[in-house]
Amino acid sequence: MSSEEIRKSFLSFFSARGGSAFGGKGKGHMIVSSSSLIPDDPSVLLTTAGMQQFKRYYTGELDAEKDFGTKNAVSIQKCFRTSDIDEVGDKTHLTFFEMLGNFSFGGYFKRESILWAYEYLTKILGISEDRLTVSVFSGDDSAGEGKTVLRDEESFNIWHKEVGLPKEKIRAMGRADNFWGPTGSEGPCGPNTEIYVDGVEVWNLVFNEYYCHADKTLKKLTSAGVDTGMGLERLVSVMQGTDNVFETDLLHPIILKVYELAPGLEEKTARIFADHMRAVSFLISDGLKPGNKEANYILRRLLRRLIAYQIKNKINPAIFKEIITLISKKYSPFYKEIENYGKIAAVAEEERFLFSEAMEKGLKELESLVITGAQDSFRVYSTFGLPFELQKELAPEKTKNIKKEDFEKEFEKHQEISRAGAEKKFGGHGLILNTGELKAGSEEELQKVIRLHTATHLLHQALRDVLGNEAGQAGSDITAERTRFDFTFGRKLTPEEIKEVEDLVNKKIKEDLQVSFQEMPKTEAEKTGALHFFKLKYPEKVKVYFAAPSGKGINEAYSKEFCGGPHVNRSLEIGEFKIIKEEAVGAGVRRIRGIILP
Which of 27, 36, 87, 575 has the smallest CB count inside 10 Å? Predict the structure, then answer.
């Protein structure tokens, strides 16, 4: 069976309302489309499991019968995990994968789940029972108060007495293998039974009986549910008789294209290209862009790894567009959101353009540099943007004695120095990426710095108005001579955009806005929409400086930011603002230098 046929058979089997071979009342699941890889669940960065989009149905916050017309759902969910990213390139590990799943929110439970799973594998896919083994939860009587769960005798009996599997084919295993935890820090969870074909795990049936709290204590759910997951790539590998996922019809065409464009490439590198290009394509198609934090940084890390291999192996950069086009054409019949391969390729190419020069210099530096410790490694990272993991991968001999924890200590030390520099500047407003002292040697110089400081706030907001919210503050340095403002943005500004930003700042200066501040709890300050450094730790009570028309409050302000001051009283005091330079300072980071005209 092809992967397309398997997808279709799975959805058809669970959505059908006909009777089961085991006398059930019919499956009657609603087919629910895959949710985005960018979840609405704040406890996770990306969608890592098929049940994630259904989390609130298990907790009772949402009503499945009201939304789906049934308590049961079936889906094929796009998933992404980074936990095994360093293992990608072996026979089984992937970052992006598809998860087949059937779910019940207070409908059926263990019996139907097990019988239907057995029926689908043996009757629909034609897998012989002789190839099957299963595992069930053995219990953990000593887990502690509020955490103990007993052995799952019910699942054992269904497999043995109703399905007919011999006892020797049913293994009882502990919490690490057969108790499924929540996605995120807390959520629904419970014991599970796993199904193996020829010793390969293909299907995990989770019985959500509990809600796991952040302290790991468990509370019985009022309505137990079913959450199953079967990795499509692994199932297709079993069905197509391959010994690894990269030889299936899901990934093999991509691998062949990689070899066509990069003959002689090492097998592991070719597999990384296939996996990462597929993951990148789906992440971008769901609206993610490379960035410096959270999920955006995950995308950037994948792209940087690809760029590094492309440069190191002297591969034509056209490989990015060609592989993305192939992936789009292969997957768009099922996932419509990925059909715009031109847009996906443009995002990838922009990152390559921004980062390839620094990467090339960084690779040469790695070749020539004698790396004696974590300080050297961190310098390569801070100067060229080569993450520690990539250094270890590209120069294993040179970095073999450097431990990740030592690198992280250097990183933390850098952050502490930056934070100390920030605290010295204007009570907390200052540098983030680099340190620097406020250079005001006299009262006259201090007044110039104050004017430039307020102008910088207006500049920050003007950049967002012209370029969009992607333009976020990444650092600033203010002296009596100029302001230097770093911001995240993926390309060079056009002369027209620079002029528009400059004109907007001067327009607001001429409006003679009143500059005030309010002190409030940090949570309330965040609700006002005030801009702030996301990487900087703020106290529980903060000042928000805002520039607004006379008589207007913070909600009517043009600009507002977490800040300690000082500022001018009215914007007209600033004088005329002039942008004298706009340049790149790193991948995805731009810098503007501005002055106040005499």
Answer: 87
Residues in the chain: 598
The sign one gets for the Cα dihedral 575, 576, 577, 580 is negative
Sequence-separated (6 or more) residues with CB below 8 Å from residue 501: 459, 462, 463, 466, 493, 579, 592
Distance set, CA 27 to CA 13, 33, 328 (Å): 8, 18, 33
Which residues, including other chains, have CB under 8 Å from residue 479's CB and lie 6 or more apart? 438, 439, 440, 449, 452
Indicate whether 403 pLDDT > 60. yes
Residue with tokens 């014991």: 191
Is the backbone of residue 44 left (phi > 0), alpha (psi -120 to 50) or beta?
A: beta
Domain 3-242 CATH superfamily? Bira Bifunctional Protein; Domain 2 (3.30.930.10)
Rounded to an integer, what distance in angstroms lies between the CA atom of residue 331 and that of residue 418?
45
pTM above threshold 0.85: no
Q: For residue 250, what pLDDT is reported?
A: 97
Neighbour tally for 243: CB within 10 Å: 10
Q: What is the DSSP letter of 43?
A: T
Give CATH 3.30.980.10 domain extents, the chain: 443-596
Residue ranges of the chain assigned to CATH 3.30.930.10:
3-242
Q: Nearest Cα to 482, choosing from 596, 598, 574?
A: 596
- Residue 97 and residue 452: Cα distance in Å, rounded? 50
Instruction: Output the average pLDDT for the chain.
Output: 87
Type of residue at 456: T
Mark 46-84 as b/e (b = at least 16 C-beta within 10 Å). bbbbbbbbbbbbbbeeeebeeebebbbbbbbbbbbbeee
Cβ neighbours of residue 392 closer than 8 Å, sequence gap 6 or more: 399, 402
Report whether CATH 3.40.630.10 matches the domain 443-596.
no
- Work out the burial of residue 190: count CB atoms within 10 Å of its CB; fewer than 13 is exposed, 13-18 middle, 19 or more buried: buried
Examine the pLDDT at 197 and tell me if it is beyond 90: yes
Bridge partner list, 577: 596
The answer to whether residues 159 and 193 touch, using CB atoms and an 8 Å cutoff, is yes
The pLDDT value given to residue 274:
97
Residue 372: half-sphere exposure toward Cβ, Cα within 13 Å: 0
Question: Which of 142, 140, 162 is closest to 151 using CA atoms?
Answer: 140
Written as six digits, the tokens of 473 are 């503050």
Task: Report whether 134 contacts 194 (CB < 8 A).
Answer: yes
Q: Using CA atoms, how far apart are residues 1 and 7, in angstroms rounded to an integer?
A: 10
pLDDT over 70 at 243, yes or no: yes
What residues contact 241, with CB distance under 8 A and at least 6 apart? none
Cα 120 → chain centroid: 33
